[in-house]
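Exercise 3.2. Students should predict the tertiary structure of the chain below and write it as structure tokens, then compare their answer with the key that follows.

Predict this chain's 3D structure.
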Amino acid sequence: MSQDVKARIKELFAIGDRRHIQQGRTGAVNLNELLMPEEASELSKLLNQLPSKKPSPVNLTKSA
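Answer key:
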């Protein structure tokens, strides 16, 4: 993924954070409520470009 995409994702999260603070909200940030529809759509598309990470297999057996 390019650095531009990563930078834009961070920028969209920062926009949501600023609006959250400006509105005097507390608690969790809900980007769906804080971003404009076109910003939310862009963020969704960018996040869907992220490579998916498969969970690592967990081995709970003890080795002797």
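Discussion points: The two ends are 42 Å apart (CA to CA). The helical segments are 3-22, 31-34, 37-48.
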